[in-house]
Amino acid sequence: MIPELSPTLIRRRLTSLFPAELVEGIARERDAVQRHRKIDITMLVWSLILGFAVDGETRSIAAFQRAYQTATNQTVVRSSFYDRFTPELGDLLSDLLAHALEEVAVPHTIAPQLTQFRDTMIADATVFRLHRLLTAFPATHDDQSGAKLHLVYNVTKQTLAQFKLTDERTHESSQFRTGNWLRGRLFLFDLGFYGYRRFALIDENDGYFVSRLKTNANPLIVDERRKWRGRAISLTGSHLRDHLSKLKRKHIDVTGEFGFKRRQYGESRSAATREFRVVGVRNENTDDYHLYVTNLPDEFTPEQVAALYSFRWKVELLFRELKSRYGLEKFETGNKAIAELLVVAALLTLLVSRALLAVFQELDPDVEYPEERWATTFRSVAQPVLGDLGVALGHPPPNLPELVRREARQPERSRLTLNKRVAHAFNTEMRP
Asked: pLDDT by residue (tens digit) across 342-399?
């Protein structure tokens, strides 16, 4: 039976996520409000979260101003609106993002075997372009500016766990912290995070990992974890690549020995070795193996290890959603503080979208909501949702004729249209 949907369902979820009292309280603490408030700080926040769809895919202050004015039926001078984009407003958005990271978590069981882990997490980063004059974010090319967004995505709770913004030149692996927070968690890494010292630290902190094996990695095989019938080639005592081209078995499941350098202390840096499990799944189409390094126990079969690694695609889809649906990197500002603020606003858009998705998943547990299809739908209704929130927060419905008149007319009387320029030329010529 299809559940009956209340017209106020979306409004109630969003206002419970960020109540006006919460927004206003943090704004006062962060000094993000002025004594004589012409701008409603709560609606400004919602305009930054939901107003991204006004001008195509561009996150510009002018677009947010139009979104705010439409939702509040209030005219705001451009300079007054621009002046609100301060580091204090950025602090307010960051606090709201931290709040949302806790509130939007929706525990979700992928498979019973994964419940033994506290969380299954994916670490990755994406690069995006900024205004070329924004020198605070140097890119790999001297004539560009670029930022890198580092994320840790929690697959189990379907939400972000960590994020950090750096310039494009910062390597993603330098932003991944090790320590006791790794305990009991499973991490899925791409090759940007590949490092045996990192893998050893995760293992020493009772965490788990899965990574693709680098093509130049050739560990010594110290044990075969699975016995093969018949005249199978023995791999123990040899290096992995020695026999790889000769193997025809469906799986490889061995223990490999890896050498690496420990962190430098003073003038010395000691060498170390560590044993990790190496598994391979044969790809019949390409006649080679997909190889992975992990410390997962034997109860996880090679096919399951490969399937777990494929979950990394989740974070790639997340980056694509941020860029193509929510306007990440479509910034028209050379101001560092505003650029950082807009990145946080894009992440808030993502979390608000996820919060609403969770509501519909709870209402329709037997219905699939593909995340990219959901993102497209959410983008299409963001502006009406913003208007509905404006009414809920006490603002009058928009006066559409006045809105059209205000936005469509020529803002400067001295700037002539083509018709008037031509008419002006003729009028000038006809004067005695």
From this structure: 999 999 999 999 999 989 988 888 888 888 899 999 999 999 999 999 999 999 887 7
Instruction: Note whether 345 and 59 are within 8 A (CB).
Output: yes
- 193, two tokens: 């995070």
Q: What DSSP designation does 9 have?
A: H
In 10 A of CB 349, how many CB atoms?
27
Pairwise CA distance, residues 281 & 292, whole Å: 9
Task: State the residue for tokens 């858009």.
Answer: 349
Closest CA to 171 of 153, 188, 190: 190
Q: Cβ(91)–Cβ(426) under 8 Å? A: no
The Cα 353–Cα 338 span in angstroms is 22
d(CA 107, CA 99) in angstroms, rounded, equals 17
Q: How many alpha carbons fall within 13 Å on the CB side of residue 293? A: 28
Residue with tokens 């890119």: 139
Question: For residue 349, which of 375, 388, 368 has the smallest C-alpha distance?
Answer: 375
Which residue type, as a one-letter code, is found at position 401?
A: P
Show Cβ contacts of residue 299 under 8 Å, excluding neighbours closer than 6 positions: 113
Instruction: Please provide the average confidence, as pLDDT, over all residues in the chain.
Output: 88
Q: How many CA atoms lie within 13 A of 261 on its CB side?
A: 5
Kindly tell me if the per-residue pLDDT of 22 is higher than 90.
Answer: yes
Q: What is the DSSP string of 279-336?
A: EEEEETTTTEEEEEEE---TTS-HHHHHHHHHTTHHHHHHHHHHHHTS-TT-B----H
For residues 175 and 257, what is the distance between their CA atoms, to the nearest angstrom? 27
DSSP per-residue string spanning 360-394: HHHH-TTS---HHHHHHHHHHHHHHHHHHHHHHTT
The conformational region for residue 427 under phi > 0 = left, psi -120 to 50 = alpha, else beta, is alpha
Token couple for 367: 């219905």
Neighbours of 126 (CB within 10 A): 19
Tokens encoding 276? 């990790």
> From CA 88, how far away is CA 22, in angstroms rounded?
16
Helix (H, G, I), strand (E, B) or coil at 228: coil
3-state secondary structure of 256: strand
Could you give the CA distance from residue 347 to residue 59 in angstroms, rounded to a whole number? Answer: 13
Report d(CA 220, CA 308) in Å as an integer.
25
